[in-house]
Amino acid sequence: MFLRCFLLIPVLVVFVSSSCPSSNTWKKNCYVFGTEKLGFSKAEVACIQKGGHLASIHDFFELDVIGQAAEFAYHSRTDYWIGAYKLGKTWQWTDKSNFSNFTDWARGEPQNIAEYGCAFMTYFNWDWKTENCANLKSYVCTVPI
Ligand SMILES: *[C@@H]1O[C@H](CO)[C@@H](O)[C@H](O)[C@H]1NC(C)=O
Ligand SMILES: *[C@@H]1O[C@H](CO)[C@@H](O)[C@H](O)[C@H]1NC(C)=O
After folding, report:
1. Which residue positions does the secretion signal occupy (predicted)?
2. If you measure from the C-alpha of residue 90 to the centroid of ligand 1, how many angstroms do you get, rounded to a whole number?
């Protein structure tokens, strides 16, 4: 029984990682793009159902991996939610990772408008902008491999 479990685990790991394109992989995460358009909260729920969260981004390399993978995923001018949202006056990631390490806000962002409580990444230069969380958008999840 022990031997059987031992043998099954590597097979499962290979299966899971092969289901994520290597271009969408970084730091043991798979970036999964939602093609349907959802409000921010529903997009986060969809990411949780995939085993992750809306993507948090912690350095320029991760930003580049996501930005390039998005071009392949959407083949179009598509902006997409990332996991940044405003709780009170402070910005947070839905996966609760540290928001203070890295941001890539567009010039003039984040706008200090009460309803603009969620952030998306722009298709054209990967800058982040704020918008009403109820608006419908594509989204990117980070799912641990
Ligand atoms: C953010 O930086 C701190 C050190 O300044 C580090 O301990 C932490 O792991 C970093 N968090 C992320 C998510 O990179
Ligand atoms: C978050 O990152 C900032 C900046 O790197 C660091 O000063 C702070 O200690 C970190 N907080 C946690 C909880 O790791």
Report:
1. 1-18
2. 17
